[in-house]
TrEMBL record, chains A, B:
Main enzyme class: hydrolase
GO molecular function: manganese ion binding; metalloaminopeptidase activity; proline dipeptidase activity
CDD domains, A to Z: Prolidase (cd01087)
Family: Belongs to the peptidase M24B family. Eukaryotic-type prolidase subfamily.
Domain of life: Eukaryota
Record has Protease as a keyword: yes
Needed co-factor(s): Mn(2+)
Name of the protein: Xaa-Pro dipeptidase
Domain Aminopeptidase P N-terminal, chain residue ranges per copy: 13-147
Residues passing through the membrane, by range: none
Catalytic activity of the protein: Xaa-L-Pro dipeptide + H2O = an L-alpha-amino acid + L-proline
Length: 506, 506
């Protein structure tokens, strides 16, 4: 049995995980009425920066990784639908490759390593496809997060034979939405190590440090101890006003502010292992002690998580989860007198008027897996019920939802409510005929420049609820204790409502 | 005066460095007979992974960085040749950018930040170019390391007006070959911090660790302490047989071997700061003590560096440097009895027969700067003498040279001799009619699987010699002392021949 591991005590991913992924795809195609034919996917290719010979570190394309788990660039893969047999096509490397890149694996070695039925050289691809069972199913469809289209490969043979560009995509996406037990175990592992890396960072914070030093500490901890060479996405290490910049940390805003005593920090970082990533956000005061105001904002966001968790189970609509979170954020802001209650308007009215979108302009969360924003949030033509795949909603917050599906067992999602003080959205709301009356201009002014809070957990939907894979300190007393030097994991789980089932077994 | 720094005590790069780079380009164009016109370059653009919304961390395109130092994606830049005035064109960002990406800088703010005469929005680019001085010079040419072509941008206006694709490229490349004082200071800084990061790693090595943990330690040290978010290239952390794989460390061979007591390590890692990178290789025994054999191979490679350094000054041919290095490697191998002297053949004959290429198949080194393999090694149409730009040579080692130029002041290069035991090249040599007789098949067999040694320094050519920017331990007694816990830098420079001028001032 072959497996992926980076050695020492790093996690062992059996390649049977990818065998199962292929089996599930074949099963899905059969359920969609396709009993014969050949599925064809192209793996990612090596790339260089601009016109130079600077080689970008290769990371496998996500669909291909899902089905084959291949680490090297330049492969192709096919699956015979009726037999389920898989073939990999590897590049035929020149002898000199051994000098520069390392030992050249034989086809037999790849066959054993990747647990497929056949391995051939990719220069045989077109001739093999000519004799393979038709039609050939290739992947084509729109990624609802990027808006970009996954395009099928261009090959002469595909113009000559019966080729289907429609049926594969929805089935393959839906397979990725519903994680297998082995995938869930891997997601749990990567979320656990991401949680522990956050704890490491939390303990290293001192006012006077730079934001990017927290990024350095996180990625070192997760690589050195757990073999995570890549982060799932660019680290957001925001202090002071920066938490109000939702995608802070990019090259134009590269985590380069000094952390001050009075700052709240918002750290959104996730490690990746064998191309499966986590996505966890922790927020806490730089000096380890919450002020009264920081506490109220934080508790509002934590209550938003709790409100979601209360209804988080198969059958619940993700939109309802989003609104449940917004309601708690609005309640906290009323308590802080940033928002005022207005006669004739209930809390539900405030939610429906999209007041939550002023302070939380993003969606509640997203599918997560091989991509941070994993596929299938708005899938056309999937096997599930029609109502699972509606069009995007309108209105602040709702329009940013990356997923509108009904929750089902084996989905893996982030739950990431937040409360931010963003001049642009606040000013727009104050000037708004409907929303302006709810906002206390003077009180909100005191919160401007203080950033915001986000708490982001990775969860998996179970048969009767969910499990929280995020095992980070969440309660205020937990955060303050850990920052003060206390042991983590704790001796006792004082927040069972957060469903951190493995917390005490870490 | 504007500057780039990542805060705290990280290095401060004045933007006048880029102003000078532009001035030198304009001067170069005038020397090439061009007195009027407009230079146009396109900056790098943001990119996402495959069809997903996973944003790759933006790193500026190298030519654009050289001239403008802009950190954000999506810019264009132009320079009026007669006045030398520079214009930047920045993207006009939607208001909502402020919510997701951060405060939107005004044109005035960019003008001050990047020390240019004018900043406009890029939606004005084409109309501005219509009224700018003609011809418009765009960059087009072949990168001699990758073989790829830098292609000029495609714009309607460029089809309508007088546009020159020939004259800019050789002048711009030649500007990059000869570093300014400010560029040299930055190269010295990044090589110093890279040296110190190597020392940090050297002290952290223990048998039983994984190779990738050394990569983790290096990148953490250089990011945490010096603000280097990117490495110049993928880290090569090779132990056991792996040093014989010249580009080890890529995704297919990801530094995943356990380090053993008896291993030699070869660590080729360089940090990057403000897009200027270093490239340093250290080799040493995992347990901190050289065996007699390890010592002899190592001393041979160090002697190769010394032989190069003896002749390293303006006027020397890089090919002669390469051969001088090979000669020392061959001498060491004769001493080790891997090679035997054959009657009728001098040492010089052995060099000319390309015996060195068996054990050092790569070139001696390369220009270095904004790209690790910096431009200009084989430049057609440059301003310097014709003999500076010959065609590639033939034969093992020589054909891999990335540069055939005569050394001149202000060039910045790596000197990286090595001696590797590579089955493929050794077997080929044994079977070769000319080379086979020099190789002792039984002795060389004892070295198979032991990897090899590379020592790589970054140097700058001065008026009468060179300065070595690499301030790492090099002498065997230095390496053993540091691995045993001794202070670095040392109290005394016992190897003045290595020209580590700033060693004691670190
Ligand atoms: Mn997220
Ligand atoms: Mn190099």
């Amino acid at each position: 049995m072959s497996a992926f591991t980076l050695g020492l005590n790093t996690y062992v991913v059996p390649f049977s995980m990818h065998v199962e992924n292929r089996d599930r795809l074949v099963k899905g195609m059969k359920e969609a009425g396709v009993s014969t034919g050949t599925i064809l996917l192209r793996g990612g290719t090596a790339s260089e920066r601009d016109d130079t010979d600077h080689e970008n570190l290769f990371r496998q394309e996500s669909y291909f990784h899902y089905l084959f788990g291949v680490r090297e660039p330049g492969f192709w893969g096919s699956i015979d639908i009726s037999t389920g047999d898989a073939t990999l096509y590897c590049p035929r490397l020149p002898e000199e490759y051994a000098v520069w890149m390392g030992k050249i694996s034989t086809c037999l070695e790849f066959k054993i390593k990747y647990e497929v039925q056949t391995v051939k050289y990719s220069d045989n691809l077109e001739s093999s496809l000519r004799t393979s069972v038709k039609p050939i199913f290739v992947n084509k469809g729109k990624n609802s997060d990027s808006g970009s289209t996954y395009n099928p490969p261009v090959l002469d043979v595909l113009k000559e034979v019966d080729c289907d560009e429609v049926k594969l995509f929805p089935v393959l996406c839906d397979c990725r939405v519903f994680k297998s037990e082995k995938e869930l175990a891997l997601m749990a592992h990567v979320s656990k190590l991401t949680s522990l890396s956050h704890v490491h960072v939390m303990r290293s914070v001192t006012p006077g440090m730079m934001e990017y030093q927290l990024e350095a500490n996180f990625s070192h901890f997760s690589y050195y101890n757990y073999g995570c060479r890549n982060m799932g996405y660019t680290a957001i290490c925001a202090c002071g006003p920066n938490p109000a910049v939702l995608h802070y940390g990019h090259a134009g805003a590269p985590n380069d502010r000094v952390i001050r005593e009075e700052d709240m920090l918002l750290l959104d970082m996730g490690a990746e292992y064998h191309c499966y990533g986590s996505d966890i956000t922790c927020s806490y005061p730089a000096n380890g002690k919450f002020t009264e105001r920081q506490r109220k904002v934080y508790e509002g966001v934590l209550n938003a998580q709790r409100a979601v968790f209360e209804i988080c189970k198969p059958g619940t609509s993700w939109v309802d989860c989003h609104k449940a979170a917004e309601k708690e954020v609005i309640k906290a802001l009323i308590d802080l007198k940033v928002l005022r209650e207005v006669e004739g308007y209930t809390l539900e009215d405030m939610v429906e008027m999209r007041l939550g979108g002023v302070f939380m302009p993003h969606g509640l969360g997203h599918h997560i897996g091989i991509d941070t924003h994993d596929v299938g949030g708005y899938l056309e033509g999937g096997k599930s019920k029609e109502e699972n795949y509606p069009n995007r909603l309108k209105g602040a917050g709702l329009k940013s939802l990356r997923n509108l599906r009904i929750l089902e067992e084996h989905q893996c999602l982030t739950v990431e409510p937040g409360c931010y003080f963003i001049d642009y959205t606040i000013d727009k709301a104050i000037a708004d005929n409907d929303l302006g009356k709810f906002i206390d201009v003077e009180v909100v002014a005191e919160f401007r420049g203080t950033g915001g809070v986000r708490l982001e957990d990775v969860i998996a939907i179970t048969a009767d609820g969910f499990e929280n894979y995020t095992l980070a300190p969440r309660g205020i007393e937990e955060v303050e204790a850990v920052m003060g030097g206390a042991k983590w994991p704790p001796m006792k789980d004082v927040h069972p409502e957060l469903m951190r089932k493995e917390l005490l077994n870490m």
